[in-house]
């Protein structure tokens, strides 16, 4: 506290006239008003779960005066700690705090979900997909990108001779979750399949022309198991 008087003096000497002081005061008032408006906009129903930062086991997340410790937490001498790696969740109505654990499979992903992902590799019998989003739910729902696979038998309603005619690395695909344990996806359905593909030669985005994909740059054509929504962004 000893330094504060000296600090005040420095501030005072920096301000040269009363006009300066007035304009500074106005600025401060305006900033306060803006903050108030932002806070009002951010207000949510009191019983809604707030999803917070990711924490590690042993991280201090609150005190027992503030919150009732729930799932994924432990209390020690009035302090509440995370017992798992995950997201802090605060229920304002119950004044409770919990940690929703992060697991290897995205917890919200369910069989039948439609996902969007990118092809990372095409092997003889499977195409590997990195899942980037789930239809109908925000991208933030996905805790960590999980590798999934489309088996050659789940590509389309017809015999697949060579998987490299159906998918290529970097393709964006829309697929349905078949099995969570092995993270198997299917593209058997006209809405499912490749949504966006890049020319294997020049990396330009391929355009759909009739049933083929054509590179507008080098005029090559390529084949894919395309979705009817190819190029539309409709998920
Ligand atoms: Zn090209």
What can you tell me about this protein's structure?
With 235 residues, the protein is of the alpha+beta class. It is 16% helix and 34% strand. It has 2 helices and 16 strands. A 5-stranded mixed beta barrel has the order 8-9-10-12-11. Strands 1-6-7-3 form a 4-stranded mixed beta sheet, with no helix packed on it. The protein has a 3-stranded antiparallel beta sheet with strand order 2-5-4, with no helix packed on it. Mean pLDDT is 79; it is low at 1-17 and 31-48. The structure holds zinc ion. Zinc ion binds next to loops.
Features:
about 240 residues, alpha+beta, five-stranded mixed barrel, 16 strands, about 15% helix, disordered N terminus, binds zinc ion
Summarize the structure.
This protein has 235 residues and is an alpha+beta fold. The protein is built from 2 helices and 16 strands. The N and C termini lie far apart (60 Å).
Give the overall shape: elongated
The average pLDDT score comes to 79
Multimeric state: single chain
The fraction of residues in strands falls at: 25-35%
Beta strands, count = 16
- Could you give the distance between the termini? 60 Å
């Amino acid at each position: 506290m000893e330094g504060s008087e000296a600090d005040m003096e420095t501030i005072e000497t920096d301000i040269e006239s009363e006009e300066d002081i007035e304009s500074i005061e106005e600025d401060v008032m305006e900033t306060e008003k803006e903050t108030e408006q932002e806070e009002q906009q951010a207000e949510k129903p009191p019983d809604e779960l707030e999803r917070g930062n990711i924490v590690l086991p042993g991280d201090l997340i609150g005190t027992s005066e503030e919150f009732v410790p729930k799932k994924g937490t432990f209390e020690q001498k009035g302090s509440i700690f995370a017992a798992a790696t995950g997201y802090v969740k605060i229920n304002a109505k119950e004044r409770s705090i919990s940690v929703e654990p992060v697991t290897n499979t995205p917890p919200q992903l369910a069989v039948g979900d439609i996902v969007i992902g990118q092809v990372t590799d095409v092997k003889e019998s499977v195409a590997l997909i990195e899942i980037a989003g789930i239809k109908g739910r925000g991208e933030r729902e996905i805790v960590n990108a999980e590798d999934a696979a489309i088996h050659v038998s789940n590509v389309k309603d017809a015999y697949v001779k060579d998987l490299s005619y159906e998918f290529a690395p970097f393709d964006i695909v829309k697929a349905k979750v078949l099995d969570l344990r092995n993270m198997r996806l299917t593209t058997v359905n006209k809405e499912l399949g490749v949504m966006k593909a890049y020319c294997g030669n020049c990396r330009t985005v391929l355009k759909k022309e009739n049933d083929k994909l054509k590179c507008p740059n080098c005029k090559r054509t390529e084949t894919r198991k395309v979705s009817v929504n190819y190029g539309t962004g409709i998920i």
